[in-house]
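User: Here's a chain of 380 residues. Predict its fold as tokens.
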Amino acid sequence: MQEIINLGIIGGGMMGREMASAAARWCHLVDFPVKPVVTSVASRTEKSCRWFTDNISSVRFASADYRRLLERSDVDAVYCAVPHNLHRQIYVDVIRSGRHLLGEKPFGMDAADNKAILDALIEHPSVTARCVSQFPFFPGAQRIVRAIRENRFGRIIEVEAGFLHGSDLDPEKPINWKRIVETNGEYGCMGDLGMHVLHVPLRFGWYPAAVHAVLSNIRPERKNSTGEWVTCDTWDNATLLIEVKAPAGSFPMTLKFQRIAPGETNTWYLNVIGDRYSARFSLKQPRTLRTLSYEPGGPQAWMHEDLGYASVYPAITGGIFEFGFADAVQQMLGAFLHRVHVGQSAEVPFDCATPEETRLHHSILTAALQSHKERKVVAL
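Assistant: Prediction complete.
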């Protein structure tokens, strides 16, 4: 029989609705040991709260005050999707309430906020907390993860990872909280996109010995809600060249975080190049995995494999069909709930980003800010 985990959602925007939708179609998963039931929502606007009460029949409570949600006995775990400057207070309050936490990236607006969140977790060891990162749950990414676990790459020659958007190319696009340092933080695009890019590298210990970063503020002004031009003071694009020290030898890793990438809608990619095996996957072609297997003296030929539906946790969708964003969100939520179900020490097929990985990712982004400001390579 499935264990019921009552889920509260703090932040009723796009991702809050995505998470509620993923929970609502839980019958999509096959023989999953846990079932989420969304019981409560906290959001600043009546309109966003009403979406949940109108569309999610299990929702029994809606409020503009998240603290009232945390007082309820029918909330076991919380998904939180709020602006970065609110992470520290709300995440700490969730943890201190004893609820398990699935929080949006970057898990604190800066390294100090992240430390406060992780300190609260140390004080409440019974709480499970994970950070959102859904794209590694795509089938192509999971094939690369499996190849890394099986040591198929040989000596790694180079790694490339990135997340590219073209949505901010339009100079007439109004400013929002992600384009203001006060609410987004100094990381700019790196804070919003960083964990997606770093989740897999950090999972396998590819932590930098040194970072060289080039950051770009391409649209320094945007219009506000009244049509006035105001300062847009966050970084639009960032490119990091990283030296990774590994037992078999060091290798370069190039990371790209871009909100202004002409022609790109939502392109997450991961390329791992080795001397025995190489693999490339991109959401630009989400059904395609490119691989190259090499034996000394043999041919060097890339193979393109058409991927069907394959997931970390089995689902009802047939293997000939496509895997999409909504599936990745549901699989990620499943991984979090599975972790809550089995506890901190048990194995799960593929974990969400861990608190320690959020700490490491903050250290890299902080080094990137220093590198760009001082125009130098920063050692870690």
